[in-house]
Amino acid sequence: MQANTLPKALVNIAGKQPDRIALRMKDFGIWRDITWKQYLENVKFTALGLNSIGIKRGEHVAIIGENKPEWLYSAFGVMSLGATFAGVYTTNPAKECEYVVGHSDSVVFICEDEEQMNKAFIFRKNTPKLRKIIVWDMEGLRDLEDPMVISFDKIMEIGREADMEDPALYDTLVKEGKPEDIAGIIYTSGTTGPPKGAMLHHEGYLWVGEQAAKVTTASVDDESISFLPLNHVYEQIFDMMMHMTVGHTVNFTENTDTVMNDMMVVSPTIFHAVPRIWEKYYSAIVLKMADATWLKRTVYGLAVKIGAKYNNLRLAGKKIPLPLYIGYQLAYFCVFWKLKERLGFDKTRLGFSGAAPISHDILKFFQSIGIPIREGYGMTETSGVTHMGGEFDFKLGAVGKALPGTEVKIGEGGEIIVRHKGIFKGYY
User: Fold this and answer.
1) How many domains does the chain contain in total?
2) 211 in a domain, yes or no?
3) CATH of the domain at 117
4) Spatial distance between the Cα atoms of 299 and 296, rounded to a whole number of angstroms
5) CA gap 101, 107 in Å, rounded
6) CA dist 241 to 83, 304, 351, Å?
7) Are residues 284 and 387 in the same domain?
8) What pLDDT digit, counting tens, does each position of 182-210 carry?
9) Could you tell me the CA-to-CA distances from 322 to 115, 221, 325, 327 in Å, in that order?
10) How confident is the model at residue 259 (pLDDT cuts 50, 70, 90)?
11) Which three-class secondary structure string do you get for 319-353?
């Protein structure tokens, strides 16, 4: 089938490379591989389970939870039915969760655990359209008797039974999807009032994924690491848009506190973060070197100076003298390579920074030690990206050129006006 919706793209990739690793999850300290075939099966059972409890095309389902495969199973299961997901920040208190669930007219609240479920218990009397609460992790809830609550495992079990009864049902439901259908509603930060629900469509998700993959030369052999909030468009670029375009592997960290340790194990080829994370890495290097021996500090300081000089000339497009070239290769071999390895960046060919401006000095530092960072620019309303720096075509400190097929002009008063296939359908 033509991959013009996210679920159709999943079906296609799983058919082409069923045994490749799609997702990798760290659970209780052990990494667990999930193939594309298993990914599709889990989405299928989720979709059929949701279908069996009455989720219909055009309805909305709210999802709240940390970055886990279950988040994607839930979102793709919802989209497979022609329904729409609406993500919620795990840090949101009950009142803010109520706003998203109520405003989006969500009929189901899919949540991670007892903590998130309890938020629904507080607001469910104020959200009359809410029919079911589905919980991924039922730890501590085995004896709960509430007609509104059902476990995610039970939904999957219902889905398996439905698949056995009608093996063609899932494909039939997925084929009904259209590229203009709303895939997800992403709520903005509410800088000009209450959060607004931006409606993003399947065609936009896939188009942005395709263009971003071209710019970054992403391939099936790439690996990324998922730790930024999955309900935010920035994380969805790598875990949904590009993932369904190139079919690379997405690694989920155990939790937000284990990111740096998990990086050393995974060593992703592409790493996306917000400026605060890059600054945290930089500070960790500075503090570590401050506690090092005099000899290590001296060698490191010399290597950084050589790296800065080398990259200043390289970025300016000037010829690099042979002694400086040799000096940089020695600095890289003796200092930078080991430093990258200890940070988990030894295989990283591209880093990305977005969602806020980043210090030019931070960019130059990482570029100097052999970790190239590219910036991007966009909004939720543009499916995340309008501009992005490429692997080779970039300017340090700039957000990059417009994605291929994007029209940009500067209006009166400096307003940036953009048109491409990823522009949202409006606010819900």
Assistant:
1) 2
2) no
3) 3.40.50.12780
4) 5
5) 8
6) 18, 36, 17
7) yes
8) 999 999 876 778 899 999 999 999 999 99
9) 61, 34, 5, 8
10) confident
11) CCCHHHHHHHHHHHHHHHHHHHHHHCCCCCCEEEE
Residue burial 1-23, b: 16+ Cβ < 10 Å; e: rest: eebebbbbbbbbbbeeeeebbbb
Give 117-123 contacts, CB < 8 A, sequence gap 24+: 117/141, 117/149, 118/94, 119/64, 119/92, 119/93, 119/94, 122/94, 122/98, 123/94, 123/95, 123/97, 123/98
Going by C-alpha positions, the residue among 132, 129, 156, 152 that lies closest to residue 141 is 152
Distances in Å between the alpha carbon of 62 and those of 97, 151, 299? 9, 15, 53
**Is this structure's pTM higher than 0.85?**
yes
Residue where one domain finishes, among candidates 200, 223, 251: 200
Does residue 81 fall inside a structural domain? yes
The tens digit of pLDDT for each residue in 91-143 reads: 999 999 999 999 999 999 999 999 999 999 999 999 999 999 999 999 888 88
Residue 377 lies in a domain: yes
Confidence of residue 393 (pLDDT cuts 50, 70, 90): confident
> In whole angstroms, what is the distance from residue 17 CA to residue 220 CA?
10
Tell whether 181 and 290 lie within a shared domain.
no
Give, rounded to a whole angstrom, the gap between the first and last alpha carbons of the chain.
Answer: 30
Q: Are residues 191 and 311 in the same domain?
A: no
Instruction: Look at the block and give the residue holding tokens 């803010």.
Output: 96
413: containing domain: 270-346+348-419
Q: Which two structure tokens, joined as six digits, stand for 185? A: 């509603």
